[in-house]
Amino acid sequence: MKSNRPFIVSMILMVLLVCSCKQSKDDGTNTLFQKIEVSQTGIDFVNTIPENDSLNQFVYHYLYNGNGVAIGDINNDGKPDLYFSGNETSSKLYLNKGEFAFKDITKTSGTETNQWMTGVTMVDVNNDGWLDIYVCSSGPIKNNSSKRNKLFINQKNETFTEEAAAWGVDNDGNATCASFFDFDNDGDLDFYLGNHADQFFSNINTPYTRSLNMDDHNQQHFFRNDGTKFVDISEKAGVLAMGYCLSAAAADYNNDGLVDLYICNDYHVPDFYYINNGDGTFSNQFNTHFKHSSTNSMGSDVADINNDGWSDLVTVDMLSENPKRFMSLMGPKDYDYTMVGIKNGYEHQYLKNTLQMNLGNGHFSDLSYLYGIAKSDWSWSPILSDFDDDGFTDLFISNGYYRDVTNLDFVLFQSRIEQQKKRPLTHEELLQKLPYEKIQNFLFMNQNGNGFLNYAAELGLDDLTHSTGSATGDLDGDGRMDLVVCNQNESPMVYKNVNELNHYLNIICQGGSGQNKFGVGCQIYVEDGSGSVRKFEMQMSKGYQSSSEPMIHIGMGTKDKLAKLTIVWPNGKTQIIQDIGTNQTLTLNSVDALLAEARIHPSNQGHYFKENGLLWGMDFVHSEQENPDFKREPLLPHRYTMLGPGLSTADVNGDGLIDVFLGNARESKGSCLYLQSNDALGSLKLSSSQPWRNLDVDVMGSLFFDPDNDGDQDLYVSVGGSEFEWPSAKYEHKLYLNDGKGNYTESRGMLPKVVTSGSSVSAADYDADGDLDLFVAGRTMPGNYPSLEVRSYILQNNNGKFKDVTLAIAPDLEYAGMICSAVFADYSGDGKPDLVLAGEWMPLIFMENVNGKFVNKTSEVGNPTISGWMNSILPIDIDNDGDLDFVVGNKGNNSFIQANVSSPCKVYWADFDKNGRQDIAMSYRYNGSEYPLFTMDEMGKSYPGFINKKFTTYTEFAGKTMVDIFGTESLNQNSLTASNFSSFLVLNNGGKFEFKPLPFISQSSPLFGMQAFDVDGNGFDDIICTGNNYTTRVPHGRDDAMPSFVLFNNNGDIFYRPGSQLGVYNQEDGKSMTLLPTKSNGVKLIIANNNSQAKGFVITQKGNKPLDIVFVKAPKNALYAHVIVNGNVKYVSLASGNGYLSAPCPGIWKTQGVGSIEFYAVNGRRL
């Protein structure tokens, strides 16, 4: 599961990448970094890790957390110098003599230390233009006086004096890091001091509060710089809290000119996101702006990763991509632990790195799996920089831990010793049992904005290490970013960047007299003529316990000039510089900034939507309660009790206005029918007729249609979910008859007994007899995952009475599997409604209507090799060429569970433990071999009689393949494969369909609700999309990154824009969607969310005014329409039911460019 990119594409990108690097290895291969040996650098510092009976991991739980490095020019000779913090050994200062030669001046400079030092920052605290050094202290010693932080003030002659007490910053807590920035924009640097607790508190049964177990050692601090002294304003500033702070990432995340803070907390303590209020205080708004965090948030860094002008954030954790290490080390917390933690205020935390992409509206989406950086083992220091200068930010991550203290066998051994012998482990037992393994650091290279690939070994970072802090700087003055990496028990590694092809531009920011001399907090916006705006921000504290050279590095690719550079200083003054030559270091001074503030907000490109649903009555709330999915079936990949809601629209009371029905869950107050009012707002009001309110089951899909040909809209309700064991009469579907005035009663006798846990329902006159028939999709067999014996139905309408004809006309559909969406659509172009099905563990199924029978034509017209967890289907003529294409919503590529051509996901089922019940196992591929997806403990709870007998230790189990564990005979019994989780555009090429993945970023979550509408008025239907899945397997984390989006269509070429930029932001668990016409020719959009409130929007035009668009209702039984748009014939499918659990009223929107409209029934009969 290393990469989602096709092998050939990845190889092409690799060739392009190494072409920009230098051939310098002895074996002739290309490299980006060249390690400079100690014999040349003279850096003989070693951060020694002590291990003995009185000092080990169990005496001090952060014993192996390592040290940091600071890079900066301490003597202003133009060459950056190095300072390494030391734990048991003294910290050391090395003077850069040029050509990667360094001189140890620790003793003569007065910067020795004799206590446990951790984070280090080079920073000018007194605004004299000379870098001082602040070093944090922690360690196992309980004597507070031995933990006081150090502040070395630069004496401008390569010596320093220690003045922490005089400046008021000799804090004696357990300090890990200090992040300096000008929080009040007064011209001097303030700082956040991150401390950690002495002990590991793990009782999540205690409700979380910010003061929980807080003491002098672990409380967090904020110091305001008053010119000659710092003042502790922690409580006043709003940052007083207990924490396990390992890093603090300062940046202006919301582009308001004030620096905010993201605090990474280790263990179970939630991360903090402090918004700078501009009045000397911060507000922790993590829950408002983030959906989840890493569990053990360690190092962090900030950069504009996707070149959109907003600051993005990376935090790192401990998830291994190696199957053996993943299975042998402590992994994600189980269901019970996670749910209790969430209930008690510890928030949604998941064991993985996060890439929190800034959406530009204050909210963030974690795209770590999509970008391929979620797994980098026991990680410490992420550094974001454009190492190859191609114009896209890359990511280095240091990793490794001196002892694998989370090794599961060791944890059990330790527990047994403590319980049985009533004593802690001895030093000899610890050394004997505690594993020791060096691993490689990661170098994720940005693939032109389409994710990252790890090329550490190929590009020169192939050392096996235990690395911690790291920093970047131009050590040799060639303009490229070199890399320094700290190691445990070994010398640091110094890597020279040998890139020679691409261009660069370095920016040094200099404040005016006595004003922030190194320009910390300066924001630079780069416009290189490509249409994008890149943001850079001058911050030195990066990664983990480290600080980088105070310089902004801009990769320019092949461009030899920069079109425009805008620098916004912390005081709000602005400079604009144009036509700048590259391959130089440019020094900018704040005194030259004469323009008033001209802050750039790149995403404010005009909204097409306005959220105001509550104004016109869209107050529907879908309500769920906790259900026993994962107790009944512990190995489910996601819940089946939380699949709704669905919705449908029609004019139910004959007043000419379109009304709305929304299904609800069994735990709610019931499904709701809203009637549209004849007022200016088109307000929605609850109907007095709600006979479905007493349904004790989840309502899924629904459909308004006229089965009895009496001229009004009756309602079919598909029920489903998995709350009740199968079989159960609760899953019987319902038909409600309309009296013509919008009053409904349950039909008796019109439907045969339709009993299935269903999903969607679709209608079309498949037999051309003048009335509407139904296809009812079966979704799951509750309690029997992944059984394919899920009943679906074709119901033939015979003068208002329905007959189950599935076996007679479509035997393949009787038990077609787990169907999520189905549409009637004439994909074959013969005037008859065919069926297209999407579902779980299946390809997109094409069933052609051949003389009134449905024949599976998937192999002839589709692609049976592309299977996935497909959720939804939207018929659309994407290129206005007169035939029918489709958009298919799939799981997406931003999840723990991945599937692609090179690494499919599979599910197997058999009676592994011979107890008469079917057991399941899921797998993925890594480096060509197939491994289990579930851990030994997870499978042991599901079938203990098999796993627990076969494997007695985690070491025995770790690294075993599926065949090793289950054997070929069991695996050959039953299996299903998902080969691709990408959502697709399915193009009709003369009756044969081509599958093209939707744009990269649209794969950020499962795609559910979709509607086609020409949002920008260019004559081509755009695609409005929503999704997410909050009900995934709990330890794997929610799929919650999708903000809703629009795929804008330009003659069949589609491009992505997030809803956060368009006014249609919805990052809830989005499911169904519909467009709703109003009396005033307005267009409303309703998105129904699982276990949350539905959202309502109006679609607007320039000036934020509502659209004036006529909606033409389709005649009864219309199958499709030909619409003339700007001279082209657009095909519009009109059969009822599309998207996900959505059934909008069929019709045509007369958007810009629409001319004549011709409606057709079955067999091409003109209506």
Q: Can you lay out the helices and strands and say which pair or pack?
A:
Blueprint: H1 7-19, E1 22-23, E2 30-31, E3 33-36, H2 38-41, E4 69-72, E5 81-84, E6 92-98, E7 101-104, H3 106-109, E8 117-123, E9 132-137, E10 150-154, E11 160-162, H4 164-167, E12 175-181, E13 190-195, E14 221-225, E15 230-232, H5 234-237, E16 245-251, E17 260-265, E18 272-276, E19 282-284, H6 286-289, E20 293-294, E21 300-303, E22 312-315, H7 323-328, H8 335-343, E23 349-350, E24 354-358, E25 364-366, H9 368-371, E26 379-385, E27 394-399, H10 408-420, H11 427-433, E28 439-440, E29 442-446, E30 452-454, E31 464-465, E32 467-473, E33 482-487, E34 493-497, E35 503-510, E36 523-527, E37 534-537, E38 541-542, E39 546-547, E40 552-557, E41 561-568, E42 574-581, E43 584-589, E44 609-611, H12 629-632, E45 647-650, E46 659-662, E47 672-676, E48 684-686, E49 698-705, E50 714-720, E51 734-738, E52 744-746, E53 757-764, E54 773-780, E55 793-798, E56 801-804, H13 806-809, E57 818-825, E58 834-843, E59 845-850, E60 853-856, H14 858-861, E61 867-869, E62 872-876, E63 885-889, E64 905-910, E65 919-926, E66 929-932, ...
Parallel strand pairs: 20-23, 35-43, 45-81
Antiparallel strand pairs: 1-2, 3-34, 4-5, 5-6, 6-7, 8-9, 9-10, 10-11, 12-13, 13-14, 14-15, 16-17, 17-18, 18-19, 21-22, 22-24, 24-25, 26-27, 27-29, 28-31, 29-30, 32-33, 33-34, 35-40, 36-37, 36-41, 38-39, 41-42, 44-76, 45-46, 46-47, 47-48, 49-50, 50-51, 51-52, 53-54, 54-55, 55-56, 57-58, 58-59, ...
Question: Would you write up a description of this structure?
Answer:
With 1167 residues, the chain is mainly beta. The protein folds into three domains: 33-317 and 352-400 and 438-510, 7 Propeller (Methylamine Dehydrogenase, Chain H), CATH 2.130.10; 522-595, no CATH class; 609-900 and 979-1161, YVTN repeat-like/Quinoprotein amine dehydrogenase (Methylamine Dehydrogenase, Chain H), CATH 2.130.10.10. It is built from 20 helices and 83 strands. The strands form 23 sheets. Strands 44, 74, 75, 76 and 77 form a five-stranded antiparallel sheet that branches. Strands 48-47-46-45-81 form a five-stranded mixed sheet, with no helix packed on it. Strands 57, 58, 59, 60 and 61 form a five-stranded antiparallel sheet that branches. A hairpin with an 8-residue loop joins strand 8 and strand 9. Helix 15 (936-942) crosses helix 16 (944-950). The longest helix is centred in the N-terminal third of the chain and has 13 residues, at 7-19. The chain is globular. The two termini are 52 Å apart. The model is unreliable at 1-20 and 23-28 (pLDDT under 50).
